[in-house]
Each structure stands twice: as structure tokens, then as C-alpha cells.
UniProtKB/TrEMBL annotation, chain A:
Protein name: FeS-binding protein
Annotated TM spans: 25-44, 50-73, 94-113, 148-168, 180-199, 235-256, 297-318, 330-349, 361-379, 399-417
Keyword match Transmembrane helix: yes
Gene Ontology CC terms, in alphabetical order: plasma membrane
Gene Ontology molecular function: 4 iron, 4 sulfur cluster binding; metal ion binding
Keywords recorded for this protein, A-Z: 4Fe-4S, Electron transport, Iron, Iron-sulfur, Membrane, Metal-binding, Transmembrane, Transmembrane helix, Transport
Keyword Hydrolase: no
Domain 4Fe-4S ferredoxin-type as annotated: residue spans: 443-471, 474-503
TrEMBL record, chain B:
Organism: Confluentibacter flavum
SUPFAM superfamilies the UniProt entry points to: FAD/NAD(P)-binding domain (SSF51905)
Membership in a protein family: Belongs to the FAD-dependent oxidoreductase family.
Gene Ontology molecular-function annotations: oxidoreductase activity
Cofactor section: FAD
Domain FAD/NAD(P)-binding: 3-286
Protein name, UniProt field: FAD-dependent oxidoreductase
Length: 529, 434
């Protein structure tokens, strides 16, 4: 007997709170890789850039792989959240803040001071960090690297290595593994390789990440791009049409069938980073009702902003003369207003009841846009819209939303606000898909009868800040516009209460008062009012 | 205005309050000595394991109560005077009620073991228990070994908790196999192996003899009854079941046995005094159920029903088909209807059992061997739909029908492997043997 005792005492198990020796070594390896990047940043001249770049990325990857293997492969398959709220990095401790500050600084430099990364002007060759990436860029598209190439490469590497970690962490869950393979693939192929190769084949084509859809790529319909598309001939025209079809035809259909998760959790690059590198921070999203209120105002304001901005930008480069080209300013504004009115009227006719109070906010948004559009037409000159230049509108959007929100706050603040700050508060694409999901989708999270024990794991680990438990403990399906269908609530639920499903539209929203398991008569009495 | 006072802010009391509020404008006060706000007891383990912070265990935000005009009062009720309809608190305060709901929950069992009140010896039930656990077993330096006494659902949760902090655990289980008073043998065996895989020193057929103190009145070791073996430890978890937390009621006029005695309307012997949840004892057990049902769901259901009665729509507590769930380390467990372990199994009950080779999934389906009627299912490692089995039970389907409709009930996440075919094959094979 005592023999048994000793045996179990001597078994080395990975410590939940402290790092094991192996994990420390892994960290050291990873940091060495990062250190090469830092050296490059400070203009260390590596004679063999290809070698050092490869070395750097390889070390980072190997470090992460060893770390993940040690952290997860020695343990049984299951939920691996032990100690999350004790670790400084994942509970807004000093380490968390430090990472937040570093990431934020990186984004500020990237967006506003790329010269510190080594970007030069007037065709001089790159220096510093960007120069280190020249060989890779040259290999892919035969041109020198830019700050965006460096960013894209690091971004892709992050998704791949943390995707690996994520898959080990959730290796009991096939849904999570497949989803992660999907985002890793789309990032590597569609966001990283294909655009570079496309450039190689046809350098007239604008950079086009095919999975990035307006309004996420808010710049897609700007004049210079339209010109590029058109100049690039049939392929370019095809891409342009694809760009328009993506948002107007493809997304509504896919969202109807699968919910917005087909994009947010299986394809999108922002989602991909949030789900992989951001996974240790998902529990930090604010679950309070007040946060939900703020979220709805902010994200829908961004949507209104991007619609107006894009319309204004296109409007200014269109002509007035119908004999030259059918798409004049007037026709364009009419098209936009008709589309919006159609959506608005149809929604009000068919979904007014479901929307409840939200209908009012929808109406406000709609009228703001329409009135602005009318104003646009009557008060604008050739270069000015009202008093602004459309260019000002565009740069303001690019600055506030495109850079500050999606980059600096959206990713830099992962360790503070959770991994999906951007997706939740800022992304206009998420707002559109969310609208579709809430109103016209087969997707819902089903709750399992009366099985919920209100433990709160689901709410805690929902990165979108949805109070999943509030629904589950009432036996009510979760149909929320913000749900990105990551499936983690379902994964962490200890009682098997939640299942992401596509089913029929009927009975999708099912508020109940009395849960299954109680007196049948009582359930009938109370639930079928 | 009628004043409804509820002692206990657990799931039972809070559910009753919420539903009374929905149905009426009565004044409602909830009393608790444990916490300012309702929290989910079932989530205590996740706080210790670092999955959640305590605030995450609160199902409602703090503003909820005022908004719904539910008064919260912190205090310990010492006596109930049913003649004057007054509660007396330990600090001398008083509170009058018109209607009283007793929802005081349970307390951990202590069977008079020597040393059971030492420092470092405790159950796992309340928020205070969690705080003490943090004190005596914060890590494996302060607590070099922990012993858990009692192999039930809370015992195994405590083992998982301590394990998450790398504290070596010896787990004393009185039965010859884990929870086999409830689980059929195949399942119980599988869980035994699963427990051992998590490096728990599982001791079956082992009882606690006594707990030995060090010079400071803190636990030093325990002795096992059967072998007289002494095991050094810094913490002892007593998890040999719970019983109603009603000591303070015993000297009132309210009739009690082990719990507060109630009829099917959840009424006690005193008019306008009701009892629900863990602390209530049915004068006559309902169907196969125990007369004291100490689970989350039944507490909630009693709260739901009682609210109707109090708001003028008198109803009996008449629960539907039995269901329950738990988790044993990484293995989720759900049950619908009745599946008995070897001990309590009625003669007519027969089982179909299937287990996956990976030793983490199995199901047992119980049926009546005379009529073939489906009686219940236990499922480990595979999620199943409550609604489907509830319906199958109501429709009194036979076992063959159930086996053929298992895929309807599957509730595992998308893309998971399905095992219905394997289970059907197991069914056919086992039929041939029988
Ligand atoms: C660790 C743990 C895990 C569990 N897991 C599950 C599970 O997975 N599934 C499941 O179905 N069940 C589970 N249970 C059981 C479930 O939690 C209980 O059945 C349920 O909480 C009982 O609710 P209740 O409202 O009847 O009482 P309680 O939740 O116990 O609430 C009673 C409240 O009354 C207070 N009180 C008592 N006496 C007085 C007094 N004199 N004055 C003032 N206040 C007083 C107590 O302090 C307490 O706050 C678990 C229990 C524990 C301890
Ligand atoms: S509700 Fe669940 S699936 Fe939806 S975003 Fe939150 S955790 Fe992910
Ligand atoms: S749905 Fe699951 S995780 Fe969420 S509160 Fe209920 S039991 Fe807990």
C-alpha cells in the first residue's frame, strides 16, 4: 500500500501554475528568435539575411511547439483551464499589461512610424527589421519587403504556431481542431501566399486578399483600386465583381446556412489571430450588460460610418454625365438608397416583432444614412461633401477604425479587454453578418433541456462577452448577433448543455420560464402563454 | 402587502423569489448568512482551480436584485417563532414574515470520526469551505498530501481540484468501486481507472478510522480502518454525503425528520411555512426518487412550483422524468430515467452496455426484461439530448426503438465521431448471449 503511495508521489506532473523546466527552455528558445528580430530592428547588419530570418522564425516556432507539447501532451485530453486566473499573463496581471503595452507600441510604430522599422523613401533599399524580410519577399513576389509584408509574415507565423498550441489544448474536441486548421489554411494561403503570387503573375493587380470582404477591406472600392482592377483587364474585372458579390450575395447565403461563424471563426484573419494567439485572453471580455449596450452602439456606429464613407468616396469619383457612363452620381446614390430601403422595409415587415426595441435603433441608423445621402446630393460640390472633403472622411475612417481600432486597440489590448475587442466593438463586417445571423439564419446554440447548473464556465470563456449562462439556465437557445460560433462555450460546459447547430428557423428563438424535467402541466401552463 | 421571507439564497430560494416576482407584487426578502449575492455552488471547484473568479459564479449581476425589488439581507437566522411569525437573528435582530420559505440547503456529513473538527479537516459545501481550503491547501508545499473521505460526486470534484494544484491525493472510498451504489459496474470500473490515470491514490473498500492531530490542533495524519495504515497529510476533505442544514429549526414548531417535512404542496405542518430544495424531506418519496433530493435541478423545480402555489395557483411538486449530470475529471456523465447500480437494481431491470476502446466513453441502457420497456440511460463521455429521452420515456418506447433512434439524441459538438452503429452492434451481440 505504502508502495503505491510513493509511486503516486514521485510522478512528475506538469505544474498548473508554474512553468516546468522544459517550458522555460522552450521560452528561452522562442525569445532568442524574437531577439534576432529586435537586433534587426536596431539595425544590426546581418550579412546573411535569409539565414537569420529563417533562424528567427524557426526558433520562435520550435519554442512554441516545445512549450505546447510540454503543457498539453503530458496531460489527459480535456479542458485545460487550470490556473488561468492565477497567471499574471492571462488575468490582467503585470505580465499581461506588459504584453499589452508592447503590442500597442508595435502597432503604433507599424501604422504611423514605419521608418523606425526600416522603411525608407525614394526607392532606397530597406534597413532594419524590414530589410531582414527582403529575401522572403523577394522569393515570393520579387520585390523588396514593406512594413505590411513584415506584419503579414509575423501575423501568419503567429496564427500558425499558436494555432498549433490551440489544437493541442483542445485536442479532445474535433470541432475546434478542424476550425483551427481552417483559419490556419486561409491565413497562410489566402492572406499571405496567394496575394504575393498574384502580384508575381500580374503586377497590375491590386493586393487582394480574397477572403477579405468589404467593409472589412473598406478601401476596396476606392478610385485607385477600381482603376487598377479595370486596368488589369478581365481578371481585374472578375475580382471587382467578386468583391461586390461577396458582400451582397455570398455572405448572406452562407450566413443564412451556417451563421456568421463560417466567416468569423473559420475564415477571417482577425478572427484567426483572436482564436489562436488571443486564446489565453478570451476570458477577459466584459460580460456585464452595460458592456453589451456599449458594444451595440459602437459597432453599429462604425457600420453607419463605413457605409457613408464608402458611398461618399465612390460618389466623388463618379461623373455627372450619363452619356459618358451609365453609373453617374445620381444613379449611384439611388442604387444605394434603394438597397438600404429594401433591407430596411423587408426587415420591418417580417422581423419587427423579433427585433423589439432594437427596431428603433435600426430605424435611427437607417434614417441617418438616408438623410445624409440626400444631403450629399444637394449640398455637395465636386470635391466637397457638405463641408468635408470625401478624402477627409476616408482618412479619418482609415485612421480611427482601420488603424487605431482594428490594430492598436483591437490587438494591442488583447491582454486587457480580451481577444475579440475589435470583432465585438469595432468590426463593421461583424455587424452586417450579425444582423443577418440574428434575423435570417439557421444557426443557433441549442441548450440541453434542464441540464444547466448555472456554473458560468460558458459565460466566462465567451470571447464575445455574451452571458451564455443567462440563456442556458432558462433553457433558451442562444441567438445573438455577436456570437461568432467559436464553440468554446460548448467545449467548456461541464454538463454538456450547449451545442452549436444549424436547424430550422421555426422555434429557433424559444424563451422559456420553466425548464424541461419539471411537471409537464406546469411547463405547459407557463411556457405556452 | 404580503411579506414573503425566504431563508437561503441558493438556487431553490432564488428561483422561488424570481418566479414570485414574475407572478406578483408581493414584498420579497431573501436571507443568507453565507454570501451577499446568489452564487452557483456547483462552480466552487472552478474558482479553486483557477478557471473562474468568484464573481463569475454569480448568475445575476448585483443590480438585478434591486431592479426586481427583491430585498437581500445578510444574517444568520437562529430561531423561528411560528406563533408570532418572527425570525430571530444571531445578532439579536428580528424580522416579521407573512409567508416563510425555508431553503437552507445542506451541510456536509460528519459521522463522529475522532478528529473530525481539527484544523485542516472540512467538507466542501460553502463559500467559507472554499476559503478554508485555500488556507490549508493552497499548494503542494503547504499541503504535501490530502486525504479525501467519501467517494461521491463532491469527493471526486475535490480530488480534481487538489490535483489541479499538484497536491497528491489519497481518495478513501467505502464502496468496492467508485459510486457503485448508483453506477452500474461497467461504468464504475471505467471511472476507477480514469481516477487512477489522474495519479490519484484511489483506495477502494477503505473507511476512515480516525484523524490524528499535531501539537497545534491541526491534522497530521489519518488512519484507515481496514488496514490500520497511517497516512500523513495536511488536509482532510470530508465528502461522505450531505444532510439537510436544519439544526436551528429543530426546536421550533416546524416538524422535521432528517429534513423539514413537507407534503406534495411543499407545505410544512405550519400554515404559510414551506420548505424547498436540499433541506426539504417529502413525507412520502415520489416514485423512485429519494425523499430528500439534494441536487440543483430539484431545488430549482421546487422553487418554480412553489411560486405558483404562493401566487394563488396551487400546485403539487410533480417532477417529470428523473435526470442528472456530473463530471468525473474529463468524463462527462448524464443520466435520464432510471438506471440502477448492482445494489439497488430491481429484478425486472436489465442492461445493455457498450464501452469504447479508449476507456473514456460508455453507455448503459436500462429496460424492463419482461416488457422490453425503456427505463433509462446513463451516458459517459457522449452528450445526449435531454428532450429526446424525456420524450422516449413518456412514450414508453421499447429498447429496440430506443437503440434505433439513438442518433436523434446525440448532442456532441459537430464533427465528433458517432458511435450509434457500434452501440447497435453491442445490443445485438448482447441479445444473442442472453
Ligand atoms: C461542490 C458542490 C458541487 C455540486 N455539484 C452539483 C451538480 O453538479 N449537480 C447538481 O445537481 N447538484 C450539485 N450540487 C448540489 C447542489 O449545489 C445543491 O443541491 C443546491 O445548491 C441546493 O440548493 P439550495 O437552494 O437548496 O440550498 P443552498 O444552495 O445550500 O442554499 C442554502 C443557503 O441558506 C443559507 N442558510 C442556511 N441556514 C441559514 C440560516 N439559519 N440563516 C441564514 N442563512 C442560512 C446557507 O448559508 C446557504 O447560503 C453540488 C454541491 C456542491 C457543494
Ligand atoms: S456564445 Fe459560445 S460560440 Fe458564441 S462566441 Fe460566445 S463562446 Fe463562442
Ligand atoms: S451552460 Fe454549461 S457552462 Fe454554462 S452555466 Fe450551464 S452548465 Fe455551466
Amino acid at each position: 500500500m505504502s508502495n503505491k503511495l510513493n509511486q503516486s508521489m514521485s510522478l512528475a506532473k506538469p505544474d498548473a501554475q508554474d512553468l516546468s523546466a522544459k517550458q522555460k527552455i522552450a521560452l528561452a528558445i522562442g525569445f532568442t528568435g524574437c531577439f534576432i528580430l529586435v537586433l534587426a530592428l536596431f539595425n544590426t547588419d546581418f550579412s546573411n539575411k535569409s539565414l537569420f530570418l529563417t533562424l528567427s522564425i524557426a526558433l520562435i516556432a520550435v519554442g512554441t511547439i516545445i512549450f505546447s507539447n510540454d503543457a498539453y501532451l503530458n496531460t489527459s485530453k480535456g479542458i485545460k483551464n487550470d490556473g488561468i486566473w492565477f497567471k499574471s499573463i492571462s488575468s490582467k496581471g503585470v505580465v499581461g499589461w506588459l504584453i499589452g503595452v508592447l503590442l500597442t507600441l508595435f502597432y503604433i510604430v507599424l501604422y504611423f512610424y514605419p521608418k523606425y522599422l526600416g522603411l525608407t523613401s525614394n526607392g532606397e533599399s530597406n534597413t532594419g527589421l524590414i530589410a531582414l524580410f527582403d529575401p522572403l519577399s523577394d522569393l515570393l513576389s520579387s520585390r523588396p519587403a514593406s512594413q505590411w509584408f513584415v506584419y503579414g509574415t509575423l501575423y501568419t507565423v503567429a496564427i500558425l504556431i499558436f494555432g498549433y498550441k490551440f489544437m493541442l489544448k483542445y485536442r479532445n474536441n474535433r470541432h475546434e481542431k478542424l476550425r483551427t486548421i481552417s483559419v490556419m489554411f486561409f491565413q497562410l494561403a489566402f492572406a499571405f501566399l496567394i496575394p504575393e503570387l498574384m502580384y508575381r503573375l500580374n503586377s497590375d493587380l491590386p493586393y487582394y486578399d480574397l477572403k477579405s470582404i468589404w467593409p472589412l477591406n473598406y478601401y476596396n472600392f476606392e478610385r485607385y483600386r477600381i482603376n487598377q482592377f479595370i486596368d488589369a483587364g478581365d481578371v481585374g474585372l472578375g475580382l471587382l465583381i467578386f468583391g461586390i458579390a461577396s458582400i451582397l450575395i455570398i455572405t448572406p447565403i452562407l450566413t443564412y446556412k451556417y451563421g456568421k461563424r463560417w466567416y468569423c471563426s473559420w475564415v477571417c484573419g482577425c478572427g484567426a489571430l483572436a482564436e489562436t494567439a488571443g486564446d489565453p485572453y478570451r476570458q477577459l471580455s466584459d460580460k456585464r450588460q452595460i458592456a453589451w449596450k456599449i458594444e451595440r452602439w459602437v459597432v453599429h456606429s462604425v457600420l453607419v460610418f463605413v457605409v457613408l464613407m464608402t458611398t461618399a468616396v465612390i460618389y466623388t469619383y463618379l461623373g455627372n454625365d450619363a452619356s459618358k457612363y451609365w453609373l453617374t452620381r445620381k444613379v449611384f446614390l439611388l442604387l444605394v438608397s434603394t438597397l438600404l430601403s429594401l433591407v430596411f422595409i423587408l426587415t420591418m415587415i417580417f422581423k419587427r416583432k423579433e427585433l423589439g426595441k432594437d427596431a428603433r435603433y435600426g430605424a435611427i441608423g437607417y434614417f441617418v444614412i438616408i438623410i445624409t445621402l440626400i444631403g450629399l446630393h444637394y449640398f455637395s460640390t465636386d470635391t466637397k461633401l457638405f463641408l468635408f472633403k470625401s478624402e477627409t472622411l476616408r482618412t479619418t475612417y482609415a485612421f480611427l477604425i482601420g488603424s487605431i481600432f482594428s490594430g492598436v486597440i483591437g490587438t494591442g489590448f488583447y491582454p486587457i479587454f480580451g481577444s475579440r475587442v475589435w470583432c465585438r466593438f469595432g468590426c463593421p463586417m461583424a455587424a452586417i453578418l450579425g444582423f443577418q445571423q440574428r434575423l435570417f439564419s439557421k444557426f443557433r446554440i441549442t441548450t440541453n433541456g434542464g441540464q444547466c447548473i448555472s456554473c458560468g464556465n460558458c459565460s466566462t470563456y465567451c470571447e464575445m462577452g455574451i452571458d451564455v449562462r443567462a440563456y442556458a439556465q432558462k433553457g433558451e437557445n442562444i441567438v445573438r448577433s455577436s456570437c461568432v460560433g467559436c464553440g468554446i462555450c460548448s467545449a467548456v460546459c461541464p454538463r454538456g448543455v450547449l451545442k452549436l447547430e444549424n436547424g430550422s428557423m421555426k422555434g429557433r428563438i424559444n424563451p422559456t420560464e420553466i425548464l424541461l424535467g419539471n411537471d409537464v402541466n406546469l411547463m405547459d401552463l407557463v411556457n405556452q402563454k | 402587502m404580503e411579506h414573503i421571507v425566504i431563508i437561503g439564497n441558493g438556487i431553490s430560494g432564488v428561483t422561488a423569489a424570481r418566479h414570485i416576482r414574475k407572478l406578483s407584487n408581493k414584498k420579497i426578502t431573501i436571507i443568507s448568512a453565507e454570501s451577499d449575492y446568489f452564487f452557483s455552488r456547483t462552480a466552487l471547484m472552478y474558482v479553486y482551480m483557477g478557471h473562474m473568479k468568484f464573481e463569475h459564479t454569480k448568475p445575476y449581476e448585483d443590480w438585478f436584485w434591486e431592479k426586481n425589488r427583491i430585498d437581500l439581507k445578510k444574517g444568520f437566522v437562529e430561531t423561528i417563532d411560528t406563533d408570532t411569525k418572527t425570525l430571530h437573528f444571531s445578532d439579536g435582530e428580528k424580522l416579521d414574515y407573512d409567508t416563510l420559505i425555508i431553503a437552507t440547503g445542506s451541510k456536509p456529513n460528519k459521522f463522529g470520526w475522532k478528529g473530525q473538527d481539527l484544523k485542516g479537516v472540512q467538507g466542501l459545501y460553502s463559500k467559507q469551505d472554499l476559503e478554508n481550503l485555500e488556507l490549508y491547501a493552497p499548494n503542494n508545499k503547504t499541503c504535501k498530501r490530502a486525504v479525501i473521505v467519501g467517494g461521491g460526486l463532491i469527493g471526486i470534484e475535490l480530488a480534481e481540484m487538489l490535483n489541479s494544484r499538484n497536491i497528491p491525493v489519497t481518495f478513501l472510498v467505502r464502496e468496492s468501486s467508485f459510486w457503485n451504489g448508483v453506477l452500474p459496474d461497467g461504468e464504475s470500473d471505467m471511472i476507477n481507472r480514469h481516477i487512477k490515470n489522474h495519479h490519484i491514490d484511489l483506495r477502494l473498500s477503505s473507511n476512515l478510522k480516525e484523524i490524528i492531530s499535531d501539537e497545534n490542533g491541526k491534522v497530521k495524519s489519518i488512519i484507515i480502518e481496514e488496514t490500520n495504515e497511517e497516512i500523513n497529510c495536511d488536509f482532510v476533505g470530508l465528502t461522505a454525503g450531505v444532510s439537510p442544514n436544519i439544526d436551528f429549526i429543530k426546536h421550533s414548531d416546524i416538524e422535521t425528520n432528517e429534513g423539514v417535512l413537507v407534503n406534495r404542496f411543499l407545505e410544512t405542518n405550519i400554515p404559510n411555512v414551506y420548505a424547498i430544495g436540499d433541506c426539504a424531506e417529502q413525507r412520502e418519496a415520489i416514485g423512485n426518487r429519494k425523499s430528500i433530493e439534494a441536487v440543483w435541478y430539484t431545488g430549482r423545480m421546487m422553487g418554480e412550483v412553489l411560486a405558483q402555489t404562493i401566487c394563488g395557483h396551487k400546485m403539487t411538486y410533480n417532477p417529470g422524468h428523473w435526470f442528472n449530470s456530473a463530471k468525473f475529471f474529463d468524463i462527462e456523465y448524464q443520466t435520464y430515467g432510471w438506471v440502477h447500480g448492482t445494489k439497488g437494481k430491481p429484478d425486472y431491470e436489465a442492461h445493455v452496455h457498450w464501452k469504447h476502446d479508449d476507456d473514456t466513453k460508455c453507455i448503459t441502457i436500462a429496460f424492463n426484461k419482461n416488457t422490453n420497456q425503456f427505463l433509462g440511460i446513463n451516458t459517459l463521455g457522449i452528450r445526449m439530448r435531454h428532450e429526446v429521452f424525456d420524450r422516449l420515456l413518456t412514450e414508453k418506447r421499447d429498447i429496440g426503438y430506443v437503440i434505433n433512434h439513438l442518433s436523434e439524441a446525440n448532442f456532441d459538438p459537430e464533427f465528433y465521431k458517432h458511435y450509434e452503429q457500434d452501440i447497435q452492434n453491442a445490443y445485438k451481440n448482447q441479445l444473442q448471449i442472453v
